[in-house]
Amino acid sequence: MAYNPCAANIVPFHSIVSIIIRTDEAENEYRMTMKTKSVYICQSCAFQSPKWAGKCPSCGAWGTFVEEVVRDEKRKSSAGAAGTAKITTLNEVESSNGDKLITGIAELDRVLGGGITRGSLILVGGDPGIGKSTLMLQICAAISKHAPIYITGEESLQQIKMRAARLTNVPDNLMLLAETDIYEVTKAIAGSEAGVAIVDSIQTMQSAEIDSTPGSISQVRECAARLMEVAKRTHKPVFMVGHVNKEGSIAGPKVLEHTVDTVLQFEGEGVYSYRILRALKNRYGSTNEIGIFEMGETGLREVHNPSEIFLTQRSVEESGTAVCASIEGTRPLLVEVQALVTPTSYNVPQRSSTGFEYKRLQMIIAILEKRLGLNFAHNDVFVNVAGGVSLNDPAVDLGIAAALVSSLRDIPVAQGTVFIGEVGLTGEVRTVTAIEQRLGESQKLGFKRAVLPQANVKKMIRGYDIELCGVERISLALAQIFS
Ligand code: TYD
Ligand code: MG
What we know:
Bound molecules: thymidine-5'-diphosphate, magnesium ion
CATH class of the largest domain: Alpha Beta
CATH superfamily of the largest domain: P-loop containing nucleotide triphosphate hydrolases
Low-confidence stretches: 1-23
Number of helices: 15
Mean pLDDT: 84
Number of domains: 3
Structural class: alpha/beta
CATH topology of the largest domain: Rossmann fold
C-alpha cells in the first residue's frame, strides 16, 4: 500500500485504510470470535479483581478500581495451539548492531543511546503543555528522509499545521493521520511507506475489542501492545506520547513501562523555559543521560552548554548560594544551589527542598549539627536548585552544606569557588567519580578555586588552572571558606 506523501495534508487515510480492513479476513474473524469478560482493574497498578473494592490490595491506593471489559486471555492461548509459531536458532536472527536512526538532534540522540533504534517502541511522557507534540514534530522534521508519519488522536490536522508553521524545516510532505482506532493506526503504520511513526497520544487510542473508555488501563495496555507488535514486525520505530496524571505518573505506568523499550520523560519547571528530556528506562542505552532544550518562539532549541544557563542568574554577593559541579549522565553540569535559613515562627521548624532529595537534606543538616556544632533547630530551612534541575549526584552534598552554612552565618561564599564532594555520616568528604570532567567544566567556565575531596587530589594525574583545596572532613572544608 503506497501513500502519496504530497496529499498528506488532505487526510487521505480514512477511506484507504478501511478498504484494507475489509480484506483482512483473519483479523475480522479474530474480532468476531473473541470473548470478553468484565473485571475491576486498579488504575494505578493494574491489579485485577472480580469484585469492586475500595482499597487496592496490591498497591494500597484508594478508590482506583474501575470496571473494565477485557479480552478473555484463554482465547489467545487456544489461538496459539494452532501451531503457527515459528522457532528459529540464534544464528538465523539478523544482527542489528548499530542499526540506529540518527536524528541529528544531539540532545535527543544521546538520551536515546545514540539514535532511534529500529523496531523500538518509545514512550514519551510529560505534563500537558510541556512540549511533547512540539518535540515530536521537530523529530519529524529532523528525520524527514525516513518518511515519518504523525498520527494524532488529540488535535485536528489544522492544529498540527499551525504548530508546524511556527517551527522551521517541517517538510510539506509530512504524512499525517487523524485517527483513534488502534487497528487502523497499526494498519497505516505497517501499510504505508513510513519509516517512523509517532502516535500522539496513547490515551486517545482505542481498540474496538475493549469496551472501556480510551485512556483506561486496559485500553492503554492493549493499544500499546498493538503498537509494540507493529514496531517489532515492521522494524519501524514507534514513538507514543503519554500524558502524565496529577500524581506525576504516566497512566497505567507499570503496565506501559514493562511493555515499551524506552521511556522518556519530558519535564520542565514552572516559569522556566528549559525542558529536560530524561530516559527512565532504555533497553538500548544508559538511563543517566539528560537532554536539555529551551522552548522559544520557534519551538525547542537544543542547549549544548547547560552550565552557562544554570549559572547566569547567580548573584555572587549574596549569602546562601554555592556552585556545585554535578554529573548528569556523562556530562558535567555546573549548577547553583541556594539555601535560606531563617528563624522559625513555628514550634516545628520547616524543611523544604526543591531539586534535591529531601531526606538527603535532612541528613546534611544532621551532620552539620553533630560534626560542626551548628544549630538549625530554631530555623526554617529551604533549599532550591536554580534553573529547575533536579540533582541526584551525591557529589553535590558539599555544595549544599556550603550554601546552608553560608545562609546560617550570613557570609557569602567567595566568588569563583566550586564545590565537589559527597559527605559521609561521620563528616568525611568522600571521593567522587569523574573528577576530570567536573574540574574541566569548572575551568572552562572561569572558576578559580575548587573545594574537593583530598583523596581525589592525591590521585590526580594532570594539572588544572584552578586552585585545588583538597579536604578530608566537612569541618575543614567549611572552616576554609568561612574562616
Ligand atoms: P505542546 O507541544 O502542544 O505540548 P504537549 O504536547 O506536551 O501538550 O506545546 C505547548 C506549549 O508550547 C504551548 O504552551 C505553546 C508552547 N510553544 C512555544 O512556546 N513555542 C513554539 O514554537 C511552540 C510550537 C509551542
Ligand atoms: Mg500534545
